[in-house]
Amino acid sequence: MLLHNGLKSPEANPSSQIFAVRVNSELSNTKIIKAGVAQGSKIGPILFALYISDVPKQHNTLLSIFADDTAILARNKNHNFIHLALKHLKTLEDWFAKWKIQINAGKTEAIMFSNSLNYPLPIKINKLIIPWSQECKYLGVILDKRLTWKPHFLHIKKKFRAAARKFYPLISRNSKLNRNNKLLIYTAYLRPVLTYACPVWGYAAKSNIKILENQQNYVIRMISKANWYFLNKDIYNSLNYPTFNSFIKKLSVNFYKRLENHSNEAVKSIPVYIPDIKNKRPRNILI
C-alpha cells in the first residue's frame, strides 16, 4: 500500500525577505517574512532537509521523502493492516501541524497494490476522505493497482510523440542532417523519455513493453530511411545501435549492481532475491 502526498513547504518570497499584496491598483503595506526559505535558493533544499530531519517514523511502515514529495509505504498480506498506516499518518498530522507544514490533501492519493477487489476503510487526512485510487503518479512513474505498467506506457507514448514532433524537422526522412546527427538527437533527447525508470517496469509483459518499443522502432526507421520490407533487427545491426530491449536491460544491470551499497532506507529494505521467471518481480528483466 502506498499513500502519496505533496507537502506545502513554508518557503518565502524568492526575491527578498519582505512582501506585499497587490489587488488591482491597490498595494498593501510591506510585511517582514519571519520564517521560511527563499524558493530557488541554493541553500534552500539543504535547509528544508534539516527542517524535516526529525519527521516521525515507525518500524512497521516506511517513509519515503523526495524533496517535498512524501510517500508512506506499508506491506502486509492482510488488508486490515491498514491501521498501521493510519496510526503513522495521525502522528505525521500532529508533527506537520506543530511545525506549520500543510499537507496538500487535494494531491494526496492512496493505492493498494493487490489483485483483490475489496478495499479497507477509507483513509482520512485532516478529516478529509482520501479515496482509494486505481493508479497514482509518483516521481514521474504511473503505478497502477496490479502493476501491469500499461497506464504508464500509454502516458509515456503520448509524451514521447509530443517530444518527437518538436524534433521532426531535424530527424524526418527529408531532413538534410546526416544520419549520425539524427541518431545523436534521438539518443540525447528522445530515448530518455522512453526508458525513464526502466529497471522498475522492465519486467512487464512483452505486449505492454511493445508499446514503447514500437515508438523507438518507428523513429529509427525514419532516421535510417528504411523501406517497409527491411527488418528491424537488420536496421539495428547496420546502424550498430542497441535495440530497445537490449538497452533497458543494460541500464537495469548497472542499476541493480549499484543497489548493493546504496544508503537509501527504502532501497535497503528491498528483499534480496534471485530472478525467477515464475514470479513477476523487477529483477526478472535480468533473465
TrEMBL record:
It comes from Araneus ventricosus (Orbweaver spider). InterPro entries: DNA/RNA_pol_sf, RT_dom. PROSITE patterns: RT_POL (PS50878). One of its GO terms (molecular function) is RNA-directed DNA polymerase activity. Keywords: Nucleotidyltransferase, RNA-directed DNA polymerase, Transferase. The gene is jockeypol_100. This is RNA-directed DNA polymerase from mobile element jockey. Residues 1-143 form the Reverse transcriptase domain.
